[in-house]
């Protein structure tokens, strides 16, 4: 129980702590992490820590040595090692993939829309994926997770395109406020339709409610394998885009005057965001706040340069998601909380902190 | 598969729906086109402006609402002669249809009308107060607060009779929480909205948790409540709504003058001698309570509080006493109409009315946003 308490406190307080830290440091000069070699080593270390936490803890008590052996010296006859290898390892891998996708997509969204509240959820992607999956279950009777993936992807893409085009109508293109509003509206609309579909038959609700909670458990690696080329390509492209995002972040006019082709950059970034968050939602379900909080935490550590923000998000996203997942496993005896629920509970205080104590309320 | 029957609406109901819709809209539109004729009534030292156009609009809206209520009483699965239905509802206590009419249809109609009026007037207060057409009472957590309490109650198998009270308490607690968290030397609209988003997602996580943890039958009941429905409304529900409406609506009406001053902006309002934060608190409280009463009885109905004030505003202009009453009446009309559609359009499948309000409201809302784009 002690560990649960510690992790929970860490998850809740750490983002806020980093937020306060970055505000303090704004008055001094320079980011907290000055040497990037050191920074990258630290973040890899943190990622490894959370990976091993995720492999070690769960309903079945497994010692550190067994965990270690399962990873590096696999003995197929030992029960504990099989659990680690067959159950916790895929789950951890999905956590890593989904976490990094969400974090990088969130950082890109915040940079491109210049909206500190930007996250994949903002673009209606979660709602779109949920809508498509519920429809798939209810109309086409698809119940295998491998079947979900493409529907989730399709739904996420369509919702994002809808949000973007609604926001784009009228002059001036898709400004941050318009994007946010369109996202909220599409999310509400799709949410209403999801609930109406779910009401029509109990089976679908029974099938979908676990997916809708957002969890990295109980999903095989098959979908991950199928979708991993997209994820890798998306992450790579996203990291390459850092320089353009930096310019976009100065404001549209300045970006144009510096020779930036704003609409093209925006379109490319939009495609990458859709690919990344669509993949994340396809393999892990709708998970809130990772995409919102991680870029803020990273920004507080490395300063406003998006080349590094994107890069560090790659490591910190999985950390947050895996820790949330571990917490969800430990918090209830003999059962578990879905990671999506944990991230929402942990993330809401952070959002409130952002709104209350930083300047985004004036946005 | 249920979806197939959903995809095939009954043609005669569809036809009737369209006719009624066209008549209603054109009637309201026509009256709203007439000129503003403002006269002043004096009664001793009291005086009031009276806009004849608004008077006409309100009269027409009232008649339409009564007509919709009558339709709600007359039509239904159980065959009742139309005239007998009305007479049973109004005076004939000896009728053999007494149960169908007076225990099932009438309370449902009354609840729909009152809930629509409450939601719409609450939405009107919020939109004018925060000066943003895209704001409705659910942003400050009324819906999700009510939903959490109701869903927990249904999931643990609590007494259904306590449902409205639990939902009401949840709504009020959530609203107070959002208000307190947004307080920072006063309340700013944007901060209120953003904090509301945070609290809403937190509460949504709690609901998801309940949905995953409890057996599917109870989750189903909770999901049905969450979609928003007037199905199975009783006279008790109507009584709760009626009392809430009779207390809160006049209160809001009295506060309207304060609202109009606040709309000038905080500084101007303060300069005019208005106690800005106190007035805003009263208005928010009244609006939230009104929405909470409605949500407690009919569930978190989407889009009514958002859409109806918009439509009313298009027909009448800025908020005054007359247009406020009109907004409420329009809300009643909207919910009654949506309920009629939900009952009959896809019969024998009865949809929750929330689905219809979302189906009508969502696209409308997107159009609204596209229109407002230029201003943002």
Task: Offer a concise description of the structure.
The complex is a heterodimer of chains A (363) and B (376). Chain A is mainly α.
| Individual helix count of chain B | 15
> Regarding CATH, which class of chain B?
Mainly Alpha
CATH topology of chain B: ABC transporter involved in vitamin B12 uptake, BtuC
Q: Kindly report how far apart the N and C termini of chain B lie.
A: 44 Å
Considering DSSP H and I runs of 4 or more, what fraction of the residues of chain B is helical? Answer: over 70%
Oligomer: heterodimer
Mean of all residue-level pLDDT scores of chain B = 80
Listing every helix as H and every strand as E from the N terminus to the C terminus, the arrangement of chain B reads HHEEHHHHHHHHHHHHH
Number of domains of chain A: 1
Low-confidence stretches of chain A: none
Q: Tally the helices of chain A.
A: 15
CATH architecture of chain A: Orthogonal Bundle
Q: CATH H-level name of chain A... which superfamily?
A: ABC transporter involved in vitamin B12 uptake, BtuC
Strand content of chain B: under 5%
Give the class-level CATH name of chain A. Mainly Alpha
What would you give as the CATH superfamily of chain B?
A: ABC transporter involved in vitamin B12 uptake, BtuC
